[in-house]
Design brief:
Rossmann fold, 6-stranded parallel beta sheet, 6 strands, globular, alpha/beta, about 170 residues, about 15% strand, single chain, 6 helices
Length: about 170
Amino acid sequence: MSQSINLPRVDEFLEELAAIQQTGSKRIALLGSRHIPLTHQNLIEMMSYALVLGGNHLITSGATGTNSAAIRGAMRADPNLLTVILPQSLERQPRESRSQLEQVIHLVENPSGDTLSLAEASSSCNQEIISRCQQLICFAFHDSDTLLRTCEEAENQRKVVTLFYLD
């Protein structure tokens, strides 16, 4: 009985190797769950701070939790290397997020998402974010459907994806 093995093509390996070995700055998307403990938020803030200090451009969204921590770290390192893309208009963001978001230099609002559910708007926003990045770092739970679909889509677009599970 023969069994077929689905191995990636050689050019896929070479593309991934080149992306990993790239020493210049990258456009890195950092996304994740809103519901994470403070200790995890501190780690994410340090990570985004280090990534931006290294000259990387960080792209995230405006939700509380992971994204807010990423924004804090990037803002401390270099606010010019941060882009925040919102799923809806700024007015639709939670009050606790707005004051932070108003300080972001490169803020992209999506008022067309105001008529959508937050899940639909977030999914669309995540697609825009991965279209702008070279690499995705994601913090999710095993039942974080929107985030897991975003990771899958990024992989389909041959982005380097690093997925951290929080559970």
